[in-house]
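Appendix B, Record 12. Input sequence as logged:
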Amino acid sequence: MSSQHQSQSGLTRNTYLSSNTGEYLDTFDFAGTRYEKVEDLRYGTNPHQTAAFYRPVDNHGAIGGMEILKSGKSGLSQTNLEDISYALNTVKFFDSPACACMKHVNPSGAAVAVANQRLLEVYQKARDCDPRAAFGSVVAFNSRVDWETAAEIMKTFVECVVAPDFSSESMAIFEDTDSKMNRQIRIIRCGDIGTIPKYMEQNAATQRTVKVLHDGSLVIADPLLTAVRGVDDLAPAQGENKKMGHVVSTVEPSPGQLLDLLTAWYINMNVRSNGVVLVKEGGTLAVGTGEQDRVGAVEQALVKYKEKYQGKENIAGSVMASDGFFPFPDAVEVAAEAGVKAIVAPAGSLRDADVIARANELGVALRHAPERIFSHH
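Logged structural output:
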């Protein structure tokens, strides 16, 4: 929170900075919660910006309660913490081993284990979605990191690895001082990932988001949560208008495609809008992010798949998640031409019926999620 001005909520620069020294205070109160300083950060978003990391005094969650097991030559930056936050916010959804490679607060790749895959394979799926972007990323897991996964991580440059636990063998590998590439890698044991809310029914009022606008004003909002708990919450798409009448999706996804749709939906919650995510066999094939138009996000993802994907899967038979509805059938047409066979998106377009009818013609299963998941982080 770096506002230089008095905000309407009463949070001022002097609330968290000493008026005498300009240093960040050890504690401050905001919105009924007392915060304590964990540490001064290496820098903020850029090296010329100062920053400090705070946590609620009485509630040390997955990030506030993390433990640095191995630190680089200097501490964490704001960018590290933000990537850690969004990476953990991705893997929190999965009971099976999962991994997210986060870069500039977007996943370069993410994956979950299918058919009893080892953590090593899960990491490879996440990394190989876009190995070039994963270079210098933050890598998060929802399960204990073993030695073979650690050895694979050390083959390329990684800023931070965060997980609930690490085996002693993996720590020995991370401590390897002969590694020129990853000598300064940061290894972090996170707190309980289960403290991060997932679903709308959970009471997350104490974890509301705060965004400081450029004039010092604040927006306080509920966190982005979902009503989607499983594949049964992804209903066959249906829509109605005067021209088309009532139209229902008639193409059935396979059980594996349904699980991939669920995976793609959860990953897409941590993609900057407009976002689309392509998934097959539990791993991302590409992530289209930050586009101003829906079909542009699909086109970007397809270009990334063609030019950057180095995994083992083919796009034929893959699935796609869109964080917003389709105003026209064009995004579905572009995805279908590339080989996508199932799509999940929210309803809400005046042309939903037209889009569903076109998906039926193309042999694409279209499922509607119960909410939009835009993220303007």
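DSSP finds ten helices and 19 strands in the chain.
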